[in-house]
UniProtKB/TrEMBL annotation:
Keyword annotations: Glycoprotein, Golgi apparatus, Membrane, Methyltransferase, Signal-anchor, Transferase, Transmembrane, Transmembrane helix
InterPro entries: Put_SAM_MeTrfase, SAM-dependent_MTases_sf
Name listed for the protein in its UniProt record: Methyltransferase
Signal peptide: none
Family the UniProt entry places it in: Belongs to the methyltransferase superfamily.
Protein's membrane topology: Single-pass type II membrane protein
PANTHER family, per the entry: METHYLTRANSFERASE PMT10-RELATED, SAM-DEPENDENT METHYLTRANSFERASE
Domain of life per record: Eukaryota
Amino acid sequence: MRGIALKKVRGWIAWCLCLKGYKRSIPWPRSRDEVWFSNVPHARLVEDKGGQNWIALKKDTFVFPGGGTQFIHGADQYLNQISEMVPEIAFGQHTRIALDIGCGVASFGAFLLQRNVTTLSIAPKDVHENQIQFALERGVPAMAAVFSTRRLLYPSQAFDLIHCSRCRIDWTRDDGILLLEVNRMLRAGGYFIWAAQPVYKHDENLQEKWKEMQDLTRRICWEFVKKEGYIAIWRKPLNNSCYLSRDSGAQPPLCDSNDDPDSVWYVSLRPCMTRLPENGYGANVTTWPERLHDPPDRLQSIRMDATFSRKELFKAESKYWNEIIESYVRAFHWKQMDFRNVMDMRAGFGGYLLLAIAFQ
């Protein structure tokens, strides 16, 4: 390990403890397409996935052509296809927050950024080393996470869209308990996109898996929107009417009314469907960019120690961070520092990071 000076700004020098050979990251947006090999020295992924157009080694850099196992013609064309299949997804307007499960080197999230969609890319650490390192080095929000026996650390109705492209998850095992976790995190009216072999291949075992997926999604009341090539898209219902109209004893059952879908710390996965708020909270969000400043109705359903109006607290936080970030930009010449990856250790309503985006 050694200390290196990152940058000198107005007499201040930022020092960082780094691995030997580490270079200053390539700045965004170039980092979407190339990163230094010495910063993420994991060549095995190139050997295993190079032929799939994921990643290549070019002199002293990794380059990312934007391809992937299912992105035959590149991630950008893949996103165009999704938009044409279901225009209502409306990247950057209706769809603002996405989750990419089993993200690989995060090309899906990287190319969604230019469509004004923030994607959280998650993947486990596997034989290809930690792919999350590639995502973060590229400047894409990412976390190491794995579907196992506990809920992922995100509240209910957190994502407008959830994506899985060859993510190697058996969604129908154990009575669909992993897809029920996706259902918990997906916003009412949100979309689930699955790009995988069972969607388009006709092998007997894969077709059986496709039938199981169709049956499970029907039983949890997802609308099958469209299938084209290797992509299948479903939509979660907007309310509980379908859940409540099912036959008595239908599986999977609704979760008990005392189940808190936002309780995630060390909470085991539940083999049940999360109820949606009766008042439509979560589904009735405004489109982006108005959504940045409009207090969501869902604030009323969040457990918090607040004596003031939640909407007033939301507006006050936005005003507070607007003033703070203006001072950061003015006093510290923030834009000259080329920040890309930022972690907010006390996020609150997310005002700091959202306004940081607005000041870019």
